[in-house]
Design brief:
By secondary structure, the chain is an alpha+beta fold. The chain is about 35% helix and about 35% strand. The mean pLDDT is about 90.
Length: about 100
């Protein structure tokens, strides 16, 4: 199982309302390769901005294998959603690693 995690650093002035609107429009969970999809606030954002690089939200996707990761990254739903995110996001911090299946 592959865990694809992306920390999101939003542009100055982006409101929580704008972020919530963006999240409501994402449908990454509809991509066939996706086993689980989460988009949640970073719980330690306020306390640890100096060490977490001001990551306010984290996108988390569980995918079966590297072929499915490639499928996910190239899927039209992902491409369109990423384009929407990048309108609000200054920087992304993507990470991919293997985890045990649940």
């Amino acid at each position: 199982m592959i865990h694809h995690v992306v920390g999101l650093i939003f542009k100055d002035g982006v409101t929580d309302e704008a972020i919530q609107q963006m999240i409501s429009e994402l449908n990454f969970g509809d991509i066939p390769a996706v086993r689980k999809f989460y988009f949640r606030p970073n719980l330690t954002h306020e306390k640890n901005q100096h060490i977490n690089h001001n990551v306010r939200y984290v996108l988390s996707v569980f995918i079966e294998n590297l072929d499915d990761l490639k499928e996910y990254l190239e899927h039209p739903i992902h491409v369109a959603g990423k384009a929407k995110m990048l309108q609000l996001v200054e920087k992304t911090l993507p990470l991919d690693f293997v985890v045990d299946a649940w």
